Structure prediction request, 674 residues.
Amino acid sequence: MRRNLIEIEHVTKIFRKTDKVLDDINLNIREGEFITLLGPSGCGKSTLLRLIAGLEELTEGDIYIDDKDTKKIPANERNINMVFQSYALFPHMTVYDNIAFGLQCKFIPKHDIQKRVEEVLHMTHLERFAYRKPKELSGGQQQRVAIARAVVNKPLALLLDEPLSALDYKLRKEMQIELKNLQRQLGITFVFVTHDQEEALSMSDRVVVMNEGVIEQIGTPRQVYENPENLYVAKFIGVANIFEAQVIKATKRKRQFSIDVRIEGTKLKLKTDQPFEKGQHIYIVIRPEDLRAWDSSEIDDTKNMIPARVEEVIYKGSTVDLILKTKEGKQLSATEFFDEDDENLDYRIGEKVWVDWLPGWEVVLIN
Amino acid sequence: MTGKMRHPELDSGSSKNKDLWSLFFEKVRISTALEKKSDMKRLVRFKNIFSQSIPLVYISVIYILLYIPIVVFIVYSFNNATFSAVWHGATLKWYQTLLSDTPILRVTGHSLVIATLSSTIATFLGALASFALFEYRFHGKKLIFTLIFILIVVPDLMFGIALLVLYTFLKFPLGFWSLLLAHISFCFPFVIVITLSRLKDMDKNIFEAARDLGATDLMIFIRIIFPLLLPALIAGWLLSFTLSMDDVIISFFVSGPTYQILPLYIFSLVHVGVTPEINALCTVIFGLTLLVILLGLLIPKWFFVKK
Prediction:
């Protein structure tokens, strides 16, 4: 386990005396990791980033950077740099001067500044644009300047506040890969803020899911997608089919717990790794790609399956997305892959299908 | 925007307009249909020439009307007559008289000193004030902002009388200092408005970015705010300078016999008759103004564009 670079302890931020934006946040950011703060707009993720940068003052709690209490360290003395959503490039300076600014502020000898700026210009493929003004560059190039301007200072951590949101889809994908490469190359800790869950999953070592000023879950992309800790995370990340149910019977055999539930009229036995009580209200989450839809000719035993009707068939090349409706009117989405087991995914609208999933692929949640 | 939200009267107004427009287009359609029968090409060409020349004529008329008085004024500075509006042949004697007229040169000097000092001080104070209004949150900010706007719209006459009353109340002697203070105070709000609008166009994040990159407040001011604000400061200074140079009304109330300035001096000459010497003086000032404007246009190009 790598050591913690930034330790956030019981951080609360209140704006204008009443507006609680962050509520008792605890988070350790490890050295060299790519961590993403993910949440809808207004969840406090940008505020947390600005607190780390020193651009906002803490209401309560502590932030330690490199084991030093940051209360007495102003933003310009923290060895941490930020990439702003609007890029915030200095419009009256050339690309070169923009990048050199941070080094000039630290009174580094001119010769060294030149060397380091050129190095970073090369790394970000900006050599050709060194003497242009920011407004003479495209959005993607401006983005690169903003990143170059920050990394040239060799910060302990780089804070990125929705840096890709202003770019078009294709460019965003390219910059995602480039950013990830840059992070690997530099070995700097990246704290990335985004509301785009796909971006968060594809880039991060760890994802912090935030909602209304609190952290809902911290984990690897795989953990937050496959094992969401609560309903909010399950709904926010990816598409989820959620069944509400009541525990009919709870049993315990050695260390294995299992429960009987009725979902959409079908009685199912589920294994869980935590105990439940009889009568308890639970949610069962199952991802569309884990849901299998069979037509009646493909199967014999429909005992543990949920009957449904095909509402919509969306062909996506490598997959087919189905919108299904159960007898009780609940809409489900299922993604079927073309593979050896099921070569022709031939679904007709209105067709009756049987739905099930491999036991254990569901997630059982209580809230 | 939703249709429901609109005011019914406004709505009916716009539909009336629409009716008028559709009527207009209907007429145009009919007339174009008729034109098809006649020689279309010639008509179109005629229409093009006509529609292109209208703006040109219009603009020319406006500019001629604006500049004719100035041209006439300049021409008469070379007129070889004392009071006549009739052309008596060209001469440079009024320029010679001007050069040897010490009182007029002295008051011109006074005006230049007052204008330079007041615009410089007003620009400095205005820049500070606008930065405070832009950057900080404090009680009464809106009130202060409104008061500044009121200063701009208040009639000069009132401004002048008010200052005179104040000076008399404080037993402040009328002269150089009373004039300077008055000029600073009426230039100040204009500078604020200009610099504030420039500041508002800036991305506030760039100051934070500078701080984040390790800049102290002083460095942020010197390297970011000042260079970005410079065009607005120059514009504010020039506007203040011209306001101060040609102010008559306020200066009339707050100046004393010890310190005369040019606009008031010319104004007082009206009683005894304006000689072409004044024309000559104003021609010189006009020439200098042109020079300043030209420099104002060229200097930024020399300084800021390097390729």
